[in-house]
C-alpha cells in the first residue's frame, strides 16, 4: 500500500521535484499556514521517485494532496485546504 493510499487520519503530501522554485514556495507557504492553523503532518515526496506519480502529476507540480484528494497545484490554495480540513 503506497503512502497515498494509507488509511487512518488524513495526511498532507506535497509532491515536489528537485530544484523546483514553485515547490519551495509552496512548502514555505504551508509552513507559514501551519503556524496559524492546525495542519496534519506533511510528507514531501519527489514526484520523480514514482513512475505512477510522475505520469499523473509530473507537469502539475508542486501538487498538494490531502489523503489521495487533490487540494491544489502550482500555488497553495490555503482557503481550499482549510475548507477540506474542516470536513468531517
Task: Summarize the structure in words.
This protein has helices at residues 21-36, 51-57, 78-86, and strands at 12-16, 42-46, 63-66, 69-73. It has 88 residues and is α+β, with helices and mostly antiparallel strands. It starts with 11 loop residues before the first strand and ends with a helix. The model has no long low-confidence stretch (mean pLDDT 90).
Order of helices and strands: EHEHEEH
Quickly give the structural class: alpha+beta
Number of domains: 1
Let me know the largest β-sheet: 4 strands, mixed
Radius of gyration: 12 Å
Low-pLDDT ranges: none
Strand order of the largest sheet: 2-1-3-4
**Helix content percent band:** 25-40%
- Mean pLDDT over the residues: 90
CATH hierarchy: architecture: 3-Layer(aba) Sandwich
- The count of β-strands is 4
CATH topology: Glutaredoxin
Q: How many helical elements?
A: 3
Corresponding CATH superfamily: Glutaredoxin
Query: Distance between termini?
Result: 24 Å
Q: Tell me the strand percentage band.
A: 15-25%
Principal-axis shape equals: globular
* The CATH C-level class name: Alpha Beta
Care to give the gist of this entry?
With 88 residues, the chain is α+β, with helices and mostly antiparallel strands.
Element layout with pairings:
Blueprint: E1 12-16, H1 21-36, E2 42-46, H2 51-57, E3 63-66, E4 69-73, H3 78-86
Parallel strand pairs: 1-2
Antiparallel strand pairs: 1-3, 3-4
Structural key phrases:
88 residues; alpha+beta; globular
